[in-house]
Amino acid sequence: MSSATAAPSNIATNIAVKLIQRESVTPDDGGCQNYIATLLAPLGFVRTQVDVGGITNSIYTRMGELNGTIAFAGHTDVVPTGPVDQWPHPPFDAVIENGVLHGRGAQDMKGGVACWIAAVAGLCGEYTPIPTVQMLITSDEEGESVDGTIRIMEYMQAHDCLPDAVIVGEPSCAEQVGDTIRRGRRGVVQVRITFHGKQGHSAYPQDADNAIHHAAPALANVAAIEWGEPAQGFPATSCQITNVNGGTGATNVIPGSCEALVDIRYNPANDFDAIKAAVEAACAGSETTLDFDHVAIAFSTPDGPFLDLVCNSIKQVTGIEAVRDTGGGTSDGRFLAAAGVAVAELGTTNSTIHQIGEQVAIAELETLTHIYSEIIENFEVQA
Q: How far apart are CA 36 and CA 15, in angstroms?
């Protein structure tokens, strides 16, 4: 049954269909945020646009009847579809079949965006007093992430309108909605190491300096760095050499340079300065050029009232005791945490994110909407 003839049984599903049908491959918004504005304006939301560098960024704000401000952070951009002919249904048709919504962004994360809007709409329709509610939406999460949520945070800091806490709608759950929330993420440091030598003929090694011979022991040292005990609740720091390239392709030419790429996922027990010093020490003794890129900072929201509220809301709706996790890659939560905002990531399951045939069960959207409603309605005591 196609979305054109389907009659979605709940608001979240209907909104998710409309969002998926707007092609918004990163960094394109595809008109999604204008559509969101038409949904939120009748509920009393005012939209502020913080567009930078061709990226669409929106802050939607509704002043509340209760104390405190809770925000939802998300994105309307999606990853490319891959081979369209391998999809069971066209990726932007938003087909509903056997209780499942198919399409790019169904889980990551147009489904979560739709659920938050549906939750707010339901509470407003019932004239339920709620705190001030914000939606912070970018079209630059799946791409470079240089002019997206970070620009929203800069604007909010400059205008003194940061929320007290934020739900990031990333698909956090493993088997069923509510089984996992992300209360933090590891940071990311990427290093490009260039080893310098002198090119020459392999028959005359005395006239050359093999860069690969310098790289091999140094990279072994990098891989063997001891990072210490991880911060509580976090995986250990991981250091992976992801690429090594040297030589001309000929078997009789000694390479004059060799380049290696290193990807380090670190927990809050480590920091950038210490990581940089450790890599530099591992490469000491070789002529190298090291380029460090601190891609993302590590962050963690401590146990306390906000995380308790999120977990209690999940249990109220589903009966599940949520795991407070810190795994996975990085997310835009890092920009919010850096601004001093308490962050919890909670969305749909993540079984098909970035895959051909991405999909989400309609029942998941219904459950997530109810959980979001519980969080919003009961947030005042946390302010």
A: 9
For the chain, what is the domain count?
2
Task: Tell me: do 19 and 96 sit in the same domain.
Answer: yes
Three-state DSSP state, 96: strand
Domain end, chosen from 296, 316, 335, is at 296
H-only helix segments in the chain: 11-20, 32-40, 110-125, 149-158, 211-223, 272-282, 305-318, 333-338, 362-377
Confidence of residue 383 (pLDDT cuts 50, 70, 90): very low
Confidence bin at 3 (pLDDT 50/70/90): very low
143 plus 251 within the same structural domain: no
Are 62 and 132 contacting, i.e. CB atoms less than 8 angstroms apart?
yes
Verify whether residue 263 is a known catalytic residue. no
226 and 209 fall within a common domain: yes
Same domain, 196 and 180: no
Query: In which residue are the tokens 């994105």 written?
Result: 75
31: phi then psi, degrees, rounded to nearest 5: 85, 5
Catalytic residue, candidates 29, 77, 345, 364: 77
Name the 3-class secondary structure at 56.
Answer: coil
Q: 195 and 289 share a domain?
A: yes
What mean pLDDT is reported for the chain? 95
> By 3-state DSSP, what share of the chain in percent is helix, strand and coil, each rounded to 5?
30, 25, 45
Whether residue 6 is contained in a domain is answered as: no
Of the candidates 140, 141, 147, 377, the residue annotated as catalytic is 141
Q: Is 141 a catalytic residue?
A: yes
